[in-house]
Design brief:
Layout (H helix, E strand, L loop, with lengths): L2 H23 L5 E5 L3 E8 L11 H22 L4 H23 L3 E9 L2 E2 L5 H30 L1
Antiparallel strand pairs: 1-2, 2-3, 3-4
Helix pairs in contact: 1-3, 2-3, 3-4
Bound molecules: Myxovirescin A.
Length: about 160
């Protein structure tokens, strides 16, 4: 029953491996064009959260991440038994949160490298852990909506 922790471990491994590769093969600020005017690999560091908010507030990030991890593990043990989608989304959030936590703990900054320009807006440079977090949160919203529909449907059928 603990296969979803394995998903989190795999996400952490891929995230840390990708960050390690970026650090080893690219200079800070170096940019590799993948798709001209759309997708670049740019070696970037962020001491804050999304969009660089709360720059340098590491203690805050440690506390928030520990709260997020405890909350996710609690929900996994309590609710994820019968709900595969919920279990997967929680493991994505767990993997993403821990992935960035490792950077914050050992590097005091987060390594970012996915650089997308979407309709002339240069989206903040992010990493695999961020992607796992956004996918995990999005899936939780979808799982909740599906659950709502099922509950309502169930009541309507009675
Ligand atoms: C994804 C959450 C950010 C991630 O949170 C974490 O670590 C968690 C575990 C702990 C944080 C201390 C607390 C969450 C703060 C919430 C937040 O920030 C609002 C997010 C909204 C979201 C709506 C969709 C935007 C998403 C944006 C981005 C990600 O796009 C894929 C751009 C990422 C780049 O700014 C990149 O430099 C960020 C850097 O990697 C550090 N990452 C973090 O702080």
């Amino acid at each position: 029953m603990y296969w979803y922790y394995i998903i989190a471990v795999v996400i952490i491994a891929i995230d840390q491996l990708s960050k390690w590769t970026i650090i080893k093969t690219m200079e800070l600020g170096e940019q590799i064009t993948v798709i001209e005017d759309f997708f670049y690999l740019t070696s970037h560091r962020n001491t804050g959260a999304a969009w660089g908010i709360l720059e340098g507030q590491m203690m805050f990030f440690y506390i928030v991440t520990v709260v997020v991890v405890i909350g996710v593990v609690y929900y996994m043990q309590k609710y994820a038994k019968g709900n595969k989608l919920l279990a997967i989304s929680l493991s994505f959030i767990l993997g993403g949160a821990i992935g960035n936590f490792i950077d914050r703990l050992f590097r005091k900054e987060v390594v970012d490298f996915f650089d997308f320009i979407i309709i002339n807006y240069d989206f903040p440079i992010f990493n695999i852990a961020d992607s796992a977090l956004v996918v995990g949160v999005s899936l939780i919203i979808i799982a909740t909506i599906i659950d709502e529909i099922k509950t309502k449907k169930g009541k309507a059928d009675k």
